[in-house]
Amino acid sequence: MMSPHVILRVVSKVLIPLIIVYGFYVHFHGEYSPGGGFQAGVVLASAIILYALIFGLDEARKVFPPYWARVGMALGGFIYASVGFVSLMMGGKFLEYAVLHPDVSHGTGQHIGIIAVEIGVLTTVTCVMIAIFYAFAGRTPEISDEDW
Amino acid sequence: MSASDITQYFDYIFMAMLLCIGIAVIRLRNLFAVVMLTGAYSLISAAWFVSLDAVDVGFTEAAVGAGISTVLLLGAMLLTSREADKTSLTRHAAAAVVTIAAGVALFYALGDMPIYGDAASAANTGVGMEYVNLTAEQIHIPNVVTAVLASYRGFDTMGEVFVVFAAGLGVALLIGLGGSKRKED
Question: How confident is the model over A86-103, as pLDDT tens digits?
């Protein structure tokens, strides 16, 4: 279905890449500025949701299949817990990031651990938000113009 | 001292706005307006959190509360009706009793709270101060909030991730994820 809203289509085409880049900025800059996996995940999900609202749910399902959302939901938690088990196997405690890298004086292990678990958070949050949106939107009749 | 005095008035303004929106949400019957006002409520809460220097919380509130929740509530609203039914007066009375009791209890507890911006309060001493002091030498990152969330309290955050996963799983089990069209493809 082609949305008749030309202005919304054009503006969102410009905005969606920026939203995605901002989401990754929030994620990977989470150690230095406000933000992190949770916020970045929601921002990334909102990019897909905006796409679905403007271009229709079927188009969005081609961009981000519901199958990915289902897998990603579980994968994020798996990544997070894996970091814990990797640190266990490297001789530390569960989620003790310092053992992940020998360079303790600069906290490199901490950086690696934090980024890795945040990737898990990001994956789960993004996929859960998109999955919940698909779940609701998939049952919703097409929004007609009178409803707005 | 004077700077904190000024931001304190911002807080009062934000709280007054939240109160107004809350009353409007209660009074309105049009669910579309209610959903939009809830989004505005979240956005003002986010501004309030920023004014309280809780930028991370404000960010989350703006993204989750004002962004995703509004969209999800709109989707939920489209599945039900556009107007709220009238509720009976007895149910209003029951809700009022609960609300007033909770409010009185909160005001009763207010006496035990530290005063606004108190440097000697429990939150600003003890383990909180320890995190602030030790993050630079132990974790080597500037954002203490991330250090606490992902490293010091990494186990808690893992639990949170599983809570989010459980939420998604719950929705998937209740109403399905929609568009399970793999058989047709």
Answer: 999 888 888 888 888 887
